[in-house]
Task: structure prediction
Amino acid sequence: MLFNSIDFAVFFPVVFVLYWFVTSKNLTVQNGLIVLSSFVFYGWWDWRFLFLLLFSSLVDFCVGVALGKESEPKRRKHLLCISIFLNLGLLGFFKYYNFFIDNFITAFSFFGQPLGIKTLSIILPVGISFYTFQSLSYGISVYRRKLEPTKDIVAFLAFVSFFPQLVAGPIERATHFLPQFYQKRNFDCDKAVVGMQLILWGFFKKIVIADNCAFYVNDIFTHYTQYSGGTLIMGAVLFSFQIYGDFSGYSDIAIGLARLFGFDMMRNFNYPYFSKNIAEFWQKWHISLTSWFREYLYLPLGGNRGSKLLKIRNVFIVFLVSGFWHGANWTFVFWGLINALFLLPLLIFSSSKKSLIGIEKETLWPSLSAFFQMLLTFSMVTFAWIFFRAKTLNEAFLYIRSVFVNPHFFTIRSELTYNNSIIPLLCYLSFLIVIEWFGRHNDHVVHPYLASKKWQITVARYSFYFITLLFIILNVKNEASNFIYFQF
Result:
């Protein structure tokens, strides 16, 4: 079920009313409603994968209970390994089985040894990478004694399957999110208002920015040999905004929905395209995943302890694994490698603290130096996104080559006219950049500036709501489009 669909427009109000007006007096029943509605939400795609979600959840619940009763270190480690191997084994089978088989066959064919192994018709369960990592965080936290194992299976199932963030995050830590299911939740009007603002801005980024960018991006990347270098560069830039609008839009909607139900979820994006270097960018992009890898992979590998060479090794491992997490394709692995290479100069020549100094928050506009640093960082990220978007490595390299084969930069408007002008999209992008630039001080781009009760601010607030809602209405399509990260 998509947030931007008619189905969800009917589903959500029903769940909301039942949650606050029917089940609010009993916490277990309220959590049970979350589980039931989340299973309906997830099963809307394919009900058969509910068994996979339930099995993964029950394994980690049972492992947690067993860890709570076990004190012998070796047995505790064995229990944790059961959770890790079963969860990653399921993820590996559904997501990577055919990838490994295809590459295995290709490798042996290269040496003249054809194999008779066949691939399988495997359907990738929506959101399996997200809920697998979220569930894993519980077992690891219990093993590390950072969290007491829960005996409330209803609360645990609600934690794993919570529908606003089930299929595309943010990937919540059990230490932060699970305890919220133990506490009675009262409706908070102020929190609900912030939630609605986040939902509104999230839909703007998805429907107005991402979906409109997708119209041009899909055509440019499909027919890249037919376009000039300027148009190809525009295609890469538009994909940068598409994936940001699509994924951060989903996160805003998910966090906003959670607030309507009385939950606080971690922030997933922090204006990443205003970063002055690639290290800062990765502190601000998909925060829930990058921090997950930092806590559960980078630090166990040694983090930044030891020699600079070991630190570089650890960073490259994390980025290669992160790339592979995104999909069973060498394009994602190469994308991870490129980002690691971009980080290399900072790892060698800069201290980590200096590399994470953010943009000037006290100035109205960035200094010339900061502006060029942001532009350079955005260009590097955009270059890497070409490999993320391309279907194959060969296609990505040919796309880049085509930029230089026909480097005309004054034919963009004529080439991208189609049946309508690209000018409205550029206006929407300008609106996005301006609003987020002036809201960059805050966790939430809209709320702090519009919280005042002065009449001028009230007028500005409702004008912003009206303009944003109007943009959304004008750009709603007949058929809801999928979110990009559903495929991961």
